[in-house]
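This section describes the prediction task in plain terms. A model, or a person checking by hand, is given the sequence of a single protein chain and must write out its three-dimensional structure as a string of tokens. No templates, partner chains or ligands are provided. The sample shown here is typical of the held-out split.
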Amino acid sequence: MPIAIAFAASEAPLAQTARAALVGQYGNVPEDQADVIVALGGDGFMLQTLHRTQELDLPVYGMNRGTVGFLMNAYSESNLVHRLKDAQEEVLNPLRMHAQCADGSHHNALAINEVSLLRQGPQAAKLRITVDGRLRMEELVCDGALVSTPAGSTAYNYSAHGPILPIGSDVLALTAIAPFRPRRWRGALLPKNAKVRIDVTEPEKRPVMADADSRSVRDVVSVEISSAPEIAHRILFDPGHGLEERLIREQFA
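The expected answer:
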């Protein structure tokens, strides 16, 4: 049977040109009538597409027309239908962020890669970390901290010297960003079902922002982070080039 494809592309000229060529060759249907969405861009656009189409429960196959493309497949205009039929599916569960701000407002967001807290001003942040209702760190002085999923462990988490987590592992990475005290603390591995709360202890003097996959909230006083196993993002990879292989390969680069 033919595959109904919906093509989505970032605003980058390279991605738009690719979309026009592929639509001309394979046709295009609205996303709510598609069997699969083909996303053209980089990792940031892939995350946007997964979030935007979450309610459709459709697999998303990315082709790299961006920069890094860790979540993308190699770009080619030939044999796309064959590649889609042979593609292997990975299921990603996002993190749920609930942030409370200094003005009393509350904000919710989902993150496929990570939820991060970052200092807003020139002074280091002071954070208090609680896991499953138990205080684990009274004070972390740092540029920030993040909680990462396995899928996001090679992104910001890895740049902050956090561990790479195998896809399918039921763990999250809690990683400090430029810790000053305790200076040598690099973070912890937590069960996937852990509930993490991070409080900002001096929010007026040392303001902090929270970010969930590039969606930011400023002047937070507390952030609660937990996995959302009821939400499943389906992402497709060419055989032999799935996330598990990429995560292993990244550690030997």
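For orientation: Residues 126 and 201 are 6 Å apart (CA to CA).
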